Amino acid sequence: MRIATWNVNSARTRADRMADFLLRHEVDVLAVQETKCSDDKFPYSRFEEIGYEVAHVGYHQWNGVAILSRVGLEDVSTHFEHQPGFDKDPSAEQQREARAVGATCGGVRVWSLYVPNGREIADRHYDYKLRWLWTLRNQVSEHLAAHPAEKLLLMGDFNIAPRDEDVWDMGFFEGRTHVTEPERAAFQGLEEAGLTEVTRQFTEDTRYTYWDYTSGRFGKNEGMRIDFQLASTALAETATAGFVDVEERSGKGASDHAPVVVDYSLGPDFDSVR
Predict the structure, then answer these.
(1) How far apart (Å, rounded) are the C-alpha atoms in residues 213 and 41?
(2) pLDDT of 48-96, one tens digit each?
(3) Which residues contact 63 (CB under 8 A, 6 or more apart)?
(4) Which residues of this protein are annotated with the site description Transition state stabilizer (predicted)?
(5) Alpha helices by DSSP H, 207-260
(6) CA distances from 201 to 38, 155, 191, 204 (A)
(7) Residues forming the active site
(8) What is the largest CA-CA distance in the chain?
(9) Are 62 and 37 in contact (CB under 8 A)?
(10) pTM of the model
């Protein structure tokens, strides 16, 4: 099974690019983030016509997540249990955002996640980000304790660079989000809950997955590694290869993120589904 994750920075703008990517790399499942549209505006037909089922969660023109699968799409969840919400006004109702969608695809329980950005360390959004991650961590820990043999995969834009080498210049990020110890601890918490980050082992030569549009960052390779696939033990041990599609980031009209692709060898049961 070939599984990819990609923050596309507008699904409607890049629907054709997404379809070309799926066909070019023969992707079985694609987790998408930052679709930037409501459910009724998502370009379902563009993917259905090439053989993919679609699950999308989007409430308006911000955030938005989706799963595209050509190996089945069952038991769709539009959020994880106890998923926190947010409103910039602390006295207002904290509304759940379109940041998580789950489905079972070819025997693998897949989640597409768009972790809150955090904005600035002193911003309420930073606290929301940490609360969101630790709530997710607790749900994963409880779930894998009850289902240790499940093939579970959490992937997406985590908005965290877990190590110093995951950013082009730590000095530039001093006093900024994405590299703080509480964020990194929250990411590590997911690994301690029973998940393995499977992409790094295949992508050390092309480690970055995001390059800001500003200041010519891509041309200077001033990037960040913030997009990941985190797999349960039963799935992680089947990972055989992976890559970051940097070429996709280099084209005209590209997203500021590159797709991250991993191959999993799931045996004859999956081959029969495919």
Answers:
(1) 25
(2) 999 999 999 999 989 999 999 999 999 999 999 999 999 999 999 999 9
(3) 34, 35, 36, 97, 98, 99, 114
(4) 159
(5) 233-236, 246-250
(6) 36, 16, 15, 7
(7) 114, 157, 257
(8) 54
(9) no
(10) 0.96
> 46-58 pLDDT, tens per residue?
999 999 999 999 9
Report yes or no: 211 and 218 within 8 Å, Cβ to Cβ. Answer: yes
Please state which of the four CATH numbers 3.60.10.10, 3.40.50.1980, 3.90.700.10, 3.30.870.10 is assigned to the domain occupying 2-86+95-264: 3.60.10.10
Which residues define the annotated binding site for Mg(2+)? 7, 34, 157, 159, 256-257
Helix (H, G, I), strand (E, B) or coil at 152: strand
- How are beta strands 152-157 and 227-232 bridged, if at all? antiparallel
Measured at the CA of 23, the angle between CA 22 and CA 26, to 5 degrees, comes to 80
Give the C-alpha separation, 86 to 104, whole Å.
27
Taking the CA atoms of 6, 7, 11 and 13 in sequence, report the sign of the dihedral they define: negative
Residue 251 has pLDDT above 90, yes or no: no
Token code pair at residue 251 = 């084209």
Residue with tokens 């005209």: 252
